[in-house]
Structures are given as structure tokens and as C-alpha cells.
Amino acid sequence: MAEWIGIGRRARRCYGFDEIALVPGAQTVNPNEVDTSFEIDGKKFKVPILAAAMDGVVDVKFAVEMSKLGGIAVINLDGVQTRYENPGDVLDEISKASPQKATELIQSVYTTPIKEKLVSKRIAEIKKQKGKAVASCIPSHAERFSKLAIEAGVDIFVIQSTVTTTKHVAKEYKVLDLFKFCKSIKVPVVLGNCVTYEVTAELMQTGAAGLLIGVGPGAACTTRGVLGIGVPQVTATVDAAAARDFHHKRTGRYVTIITDGGMNRGGDICKAFASGADAVMIGSSFARAIEAPGRGYHWGMATSHVNLPRGTRIQVGTTGTLKYILFGPAKVDDGSQNLIGALKTSMGSLGASNIKEMHDVEIIIAPSIQTEGKIFQVGQRVGMGK
User: Fold this and answer.
1) What is the per-residue DSSP string for 76-138?
2) Can you spell out the DSSP letters for 209-234?
3) What's the domain count of the chain?
4) How far apart are CA 376 and CA 380, in angstroms?
5) CATH, residue 246
6) Omega before residue 338 within 30° of 0, cis
């Protein structure tokens, strides 16, 4: 698999969504009869697409609406929702900032301390409106925030950092023991992010119910440019899925694999499932929803870092309701709306009746898949040529 890149050094070839294609199978299925549901620790959800824990994507209102539609929206307990009693004012300010000042403003906004009472309040607000409360924080806040979140009725707790391992080394601060944490907490835990077989396998041994796969592929993330790290999402997902399958075979316990980032249209999502994902997490596509709190803007989770920001604010626009984005009817030609319709149609064409059958469809390396025969779209900047 590896190729020589210089004297004594080899590197393996890895693949992203634009480099592969899915091959139709020997049978087809009525798209209206396929099952797109997935589970986390026995909790079943109709929509296998999670809204990312980003301040331009998820607030209380968005989380409740996503729940009504059968999906999950993760609220960021380290963000503006828990720093400000009225986060809407801050979000307005961020949306009005010039591109040159946006990062500096976001850094300033996030220096306001987190108010623990707001951690409980936001989750309680979601539960009061009969929504599924799923909350995320960084490892250093996990022990403290998880207690508050559980008391408020959180359904799933997410611990998320740029790169997560079971062997974090630090003398400056206390390291979170993921094994101890996952065994002690009373709700399902999702951990992220990781991209390799070995780390995925080790994180599954903690007792986590799910894992987030992906480092740096997000539309508003600059980690790959700033730090030079990451693995293209197709390869990362395939490797993680292989670890999941081995873990399941060895222990009988199935851990949900969630491909996180790098998908902005229906085709990318379909390829993630074919690569082995049980669900996907996206941000920029949902940031376009009328219900999204970002006012048509979206920024990375690490944009606010006071010393080394690894994200930027991007303008994605507002294209329609969350329902349109998930279920259509699509009003745009670029595949960013009716994501569930696209998934169902792809599954039907591939002969897959459910998500697990998607894991077995044929994948080919196809670097021309995005450009073959698309000269007019490219020239006119419509459809796949945007």
C-alpha cells in the first residue's frame, strides 16, 4: 500500500470523498422502503445525520427542531450558549463582523467565562420542549459538566477534542481517565476525534457508545493548514470501521462509528456510509438552515483559540428550513438539500436496504468522478461545477 516518498521513507495513499465512487449493485430497492435509522447504545434515531456541536449550527431551538425531525443536534457546552445569558446578541455581532476582524472578535467573545448555571439551563430548555438533549465539551470540562448535564436530563454526552487518545500525556493539568469516566457515567458517551485503526480500537475499550471520526476536514476548520495533520475521510472511516467490526467480533459489543466533517452534499454522505459509517456529523450544511443560530455564518470549534486559532468564519448563506435540508423538496441544484432523500435514492440504486448493507457496497477509485462530462456545469458554475 505504501509508496516511497524519499530515501528510507514510505507513505501510504489515502482517499477522500472526491476520489471515489460507489458502484450500483446487482439488485435495486425502492428508495421509499429503505431503512436509514441508526442506534447509539440502544437508542434509535430515524435520521443518521447529526448536527455538529458548533455555535453557528446548534442552539436550543435548533436542537428541538432536529429532535422533532428524528435526528440529533449536539449543543456545545464550551460555546456562547453557556457563556452568555442572551447569546443571540453575540451571534448578531459575529455575523456583522468584517472578514478581517471576525477571528479576533470570536477570540474576544470566547474569553467570557462559562457560567455553570447555563450548562444546566440549556439542557433543561431542550428537555422542556421534549427534545433529545445531546451535549458536548472538551475533556478538561467533562467531569464537571457531565454531572450538571445529567442532573438536567441529558440523553447522550459527547467529549470532543481535535485529537483524542487513551494515552494523553500532560504534567501541567490532570488528564481525564476515559476508562473511568465512561464506566461511571449513567448515559451513553461519544468520544472524538480520531482517524486511525489503532486509536479507534483503544477508544472502544473505554466503554464509549460511539466515536467521532475525522481530524480537520470541516468546512470552517483550518487544522490541516495550521498543524498539517489529518487523514482523508474515506480512508479514516474505512480504518475505523474495521476496528469496530473487529471489536464487535471479539467482544459482542457494537460501537457506533460517526464520520465527522468533510461532507457538504448528499453524495459525500452516501460515500461515508459506504466506507463504513453508522452515522455522520455535519456542520456547514446545517448552518444554512433558517433555524441555525449563525445567521448564515459558520465557524470552526477551535476558531476561538486565544493563541493558535484552527478555524475561520465562513459565509454559507441561508438556503431553507432544516426540514428542506433534511427531507426536501430541494430548491438548489448542488446536493446540499434533501440529504435523506439523496441517501435513500443512493441506497436504492446500490441495492442496500439499510445502513449496514451500505457497508458492503463496491467502492472504486475514481478521480474523474466529479469532472467527467461536467464541462458545461463547470463553465457555468452550476450544479457540480460550483
Assistant:
1) ETTSHHHH-SSHHHHHHHHHHS-HHHHHHHHHHHTTSPP-HHHHHHHHHHHHHTT---EEEE-
2) SEEEE-SS-STTB-HHHHT-----HH
3) 1
4) 6
5) 3.20.20.70
6) no
> Which among 325, 303, 320 has a CA at the least distance from the CA of 312?
303
Report DSSP letters for 249-294, one per residue. HHHS---EEEEES---SHHHHHHHHHTT-SEEEESHHHHTBTT-TT
Q: How far is CA 321 from CA 7, 71, 121, 231, 324, in A?
A: 54, 15, 26, 32, 5
**pLDDT per residue over 245-276, tens digit each?**
999 999 999 999 999 999 989 999 999 999 99
Domain membership flag for residue 136: yes
Q: In the block, which residue shows the cell 474576544? A: 108
Q: What is the pLDDT of residues 323-360, one digit of tens each?
A: 999 999 998 888 899 999 999 999 999 999 999 999 99
Residue 254 belongs to a domain: yes
Q: What share of the chain is helix, strand, coil (3-state, %, to 5)?
A: 40, 20, 45
Distance CA 185, CA 259 (A): 24
Three-state secondary-structure class, residue 183: helix
Q: Determine the structural domain holding residue 218 and report its residue range.
A: 20-385
Residue 6 domain flag: no
pLDDT at position 1? 67
Query: 381: exposed, middle or buried (C-beta count within 10 Å: 0-12, 13-18, 19+)?
Result: exposed
Residue 131 included in any domain? yes
| Residue 264 contacts residue 244 (beta carbons within 8 Å) | no
